[in-house]
Amino acid sequence: MTGNLVCNQRCKISDRVCNRLPLLVACATFFLIIAGALVTSHDAGLATSDWPLSNGQIFPRMVGNLFWEHGHRMVATTVGLLTIVLTIYLWKKEERRWVRRLGVFGLLAVIAQGLLGGLTVKLMLPLAVSAAHATLAQLFFCTTVSLAVVTAPSWERRVATIDEQGIVPARYLCLVAVATVFLQLIIGATLRHSATWDKSLPPDLLLAHIGGAVALTLMLATAAGTILRRHPNQIFLTRPAAIALALLGIQLLLGLAAYVTRQASPNDPQPLNPMVAITVAHVACGALVFATTIILTLRSFKCLRSTAALEFAGGLLR
Length: 318
Hints:
Elements: H1 2-41, H2 66-93, H3 97-122, H4 127-150, H5 153-157, E1 162-163, H6 170-192, H7 203-230, H8 235-264, H9 273-303, E2 304-305, H10 307-317
Parallel strand pairs: 1-2
Helix pairs in contact: 1-2, 1-4, 1-9, 2-3, 3-4, 4-6, 4-9, 6-7, 6-9, 7-8, 8-9
């Protein structure tokens, strides 16, 4: 009896570690996204022409824009090391093969992210590389959030016992919403890196981003609204749905504020704090919208089952 209690206690500790480690990496990655946004907003991407060193040093004197650029590199290095630890831990302790593979994908993504960061410096901030660097950051963040979700104790306790209602399955609406958010992030990253603070934004990219915001609003509102309407008593689903809608509203307001402050920035002598703060908040909130939509989608696929599929299977067995 005592041996079983000790074994159960060890399993609980292992489960907590397996969940808290990806949660830590996800939080660190979110902080890294903010650090990267601060580099772009301060136009500090070329504060040093070296990579991976800064002015030939590992720890240079962090003054001026070098504070933002080298600080970003230090945070990225920390995230990379944490990802290595997480991948090793998952490979040794996680029994689900697909979760281990997701951890390996995260490791490959963070390595590619570091290399893209180096290319942005070496190639003098080309638009394609800079936009890819920003987009991959969001994709890596999504991966760490997914790992945090599927390693949570609440994930294992859930099974697909909730019947889908309506013609269109809610989980597929959530999946389309995730794809829409990701496409909007790609457009936003391209727009953000298409012009420095002292130049006007390209009208075609700006219109594409506005159109993407409209499409995203419609799609996410449909997906989250469907979950809230069909399954009002399932807090496991309704909580991320409600949070996603709240963050979407904040994101739209931040987008409008970012546009207003950005329009005035070419007349400023340098990137001013209001413009920097609002645009960075816009980037950060976009990442949170992406994360909550991912959580909602994963949970919907975990909990919901298709009644049509069950009826079809039942008909075959008759």
